[in-house]
C-alpha cells in the first residue's frame, strides 16, 4: 500500500523553508535541475559529487499520479482496518516479536517505544519489509520538489539525499515509495540523516536491509516526536448513551478519572492510563467503535497525518500487544466522496478551516462538523451524516 505521504509530517525548520522559496518550482525540468546543481555548489559540494548524484535524473510522471491518487484514506475506520489488518499480519507480527525478542527489549529500554507500535508501522508501511517500493527515490524527490504543490517539503529532501550520496549511503538507483521514503519503516532522507540509528553496529544506517537499523531508527524518530515511555496510546472503551458528545474528540482531553465518573468504562479489565489525560475518539460517531486516545496517540500523526491510518495503526498495535477485536457497533452510514466534498464546501462557506476540499474526514473537518452539529441541536459526535449535510 502506498501510504499517505510521510513528508507531510516532517518538521521543517524555518531555514529550510526559506531555502526552498529562493529557487522557484515548476518551469522547464532541465533548468530546474540546473538550479539544484547551482545551489549544491553554494552548499559546498564538489562538482564530481554533484554530477554523480544528478546524472540521468528524470521527471517521474508516475510519482505525480500517485501523489494525486490517495482515495484509500476516504474509507471508514472499520473498512480501512479490516482491509489492513489480516490474520497473516497478526501472525507474522507476533512471530517477529518472539523471534527478535531481545532486539525489541533493547529498543524499549533505550527509547520506551513498545514492539506493538513498531510492528504496526512495519506491517502497514512495507508488509514487514517485503514491499518497500520500486520508485527511484532520487527521481521521486526531484520530481516532487519541481512540482509546485509542496516544494518547501521536498526540496530539502533532495539535498539530504545528496548528503547521503556524498557519504556513500545513497546509490542513485535507490528505490522506495513514491514520496521518497526509504526502507522497511519508510523514512525520508532528512530523517535518516537526523534520526537514523546504526542498530546492528556495522557503521551504516541501512533501512532497506537491516531490521535492527530500521527498528532502532523508527523508535528514535518516535521518541523525538514526543513519545512518552511506559504509557498507553489507545484503549477501547464503552461509552454511555448520554455522554456529552460535544466533549469528545482529540481536542477535548480530560483526566481518565473524569471520563470514568461520566460512565466511560474500559472494554475489559482496568483503565491502562488511569492517572493520565485522554480524549474520547469516536472514529464513526457515537454508534461505532469508541477509544480512549492517550497523549502518545497524537505523536503518531508525526509519522502519518491520516486520521484513519493512524487510528488503524494504533489499534493494530494494541492487538499485537494482546487487545481483543474491537466492537464495531452499528454506526450511521457515512457520506460518499461527492457528499463529503459538498459538506466541506458548506463548512468552509461558514468560515470553518477544513484543511482543504478533498473528501477526506480529517481532524479539522471533524472539528467543524462537531461545531455545526452542536449549533443545530444534533448529537455532536463529529461523525458527518446526510442529516447534517441536508441541514446545512
UniProtKB/TrEMBL annotation:
Biological-process GO terms, alphabetical: peptidoglycan catabolic process
Protein name (Swiss-Prot/TrEMBL): Lytic murein transglycosylase
Pfam families registered for this protein in UniProt: PG_binding_1 (PF01471), SLT_2 (PF13406)
Record-annotated Transglycosylase SLT domain positions: 29-317
GO molecular function terms listed in the Swiss-Prot or TrEMBL record: peptidoglycan lytic transglycosylase activity
Alphabetized UniProt keyword annotations: Signal
Signal sequence interval, chain numbering: 1-20
Ranges where the Peptidoglycan binding-like domain occurs: 337-392
Stretches of the chain forming a coiled coil according to its record: none
Source organism (scientific name): Meinhardsimonia xiamenensis
The keyword Signal is annotated on this UniProt entry: yes
Amino acid at each position: 500500500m502506498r501510504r499517505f505521504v510521510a513528508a507531510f509530517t516532517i518538521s521543517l525548520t524555518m531555514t529550510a523553508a526559506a531555502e526552498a522559496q529562493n529557487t522557484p518550482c515548476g518551469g522547464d525540468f532541465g533548468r530546474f535541475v540546473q538550479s539544484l546543481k547551482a545551489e549544491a555548489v553554494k552548499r559546498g559540494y564538489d562538482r564530481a559529487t554533484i554530477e554523480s548524484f544528478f546524472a540521468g535524473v528524470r521527471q517521474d510522471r508516475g510519482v505525480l499520479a500517485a501523489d494525486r491518487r490517495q482515495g484509500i484514506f476516504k474509507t471508514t475506520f472499520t473498512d480501512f482496518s479490516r482491509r489492513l489488518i489480516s490474520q497473516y499480519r497478526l501472525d507474522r507480527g507476533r512471530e517477529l516479536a518472539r523471534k527478535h525478542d531481545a532486539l525489541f527489549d533493547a529498543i524499549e529500554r533505550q527509547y520506551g517505544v513498545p514492539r506493538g507500535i513498531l510492528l504496526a508501522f512495519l506491517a502497514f508501511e512495507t508488509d514487514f519489509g517485503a514491499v518497500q517500493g520500486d520508485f527511484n527515490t532520487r527521481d521521486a524527490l526531484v520530481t516532487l520538489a519541481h512540482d509546485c504543490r509542496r516544494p518547501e517539503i521536498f526540496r530539502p529532501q533532495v539535498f539530504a539525499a545528496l548528503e547521503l550520496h556524498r557519504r556513500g549511503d545513497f546509490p542513485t538507483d535507490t528505490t522506495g515509495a513514491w514520496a521518497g521514503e526509504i526502507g522497511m519503516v519508510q523514512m525520508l532522507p532528512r530523517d535518516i540523516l537526523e534520526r537514523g540509528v546504526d542498530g546492528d553496529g556495522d557503521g551504516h544506517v541501512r533501512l532497506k536491509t537491516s531490521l535492527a537499523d530500521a527498528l532502532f531508527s523508527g523508535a528514535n524518530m518516535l521518541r523525538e516526536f514526543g513519545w512518552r515511555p511506559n504509557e498507553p496510546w489507545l484503549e477501547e472503551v464503552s461509552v454511555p448513551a448520554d455522554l456529552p458528545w460535544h466533549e469528545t474528540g482529540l481536542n477535548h482531553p480530560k483526566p481518565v478519572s473524569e471520563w470514568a465518573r461520566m460512565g466511560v468504562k474500559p472494554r475489559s479489565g482496568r483503565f491502562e492510563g488511569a492517572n493520565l489525560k485522554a480524549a474520547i475518539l469516536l472514529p464513526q460517531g457515537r454508534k461505532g467503535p469508541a477509544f480512549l486516545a492517550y497523549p502518545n496517540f497524537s505523536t503518531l500523526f508525526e509519522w502519518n497525518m491520516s486520521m484513519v491510518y493512524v487510528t488503524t495503526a494504533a489499534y493494530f498495535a494494541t492487538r499485537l500487544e494482546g487487545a481483543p477485536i474491537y466492537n464495531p457497533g452499528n454506526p450511521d452510514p457515512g457520506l460518499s466522496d461527492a457528499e463529503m466534498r459538498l459538506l466541506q464546501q458548506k463548512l468552509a462557506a461558514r468560515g470553518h478551516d477544513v484543511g482543504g476540499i478533498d473528501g477526506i474526514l480529517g481532524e479539522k473537518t471533524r472539528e467543524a462538523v462537531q461545531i455545526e452539529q452542536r449549533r443545530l441541536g444534533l448529537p455532536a459526535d463529529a461523525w458527518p451524516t446526510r442529516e447534517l449535510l441536508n441541514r446545512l
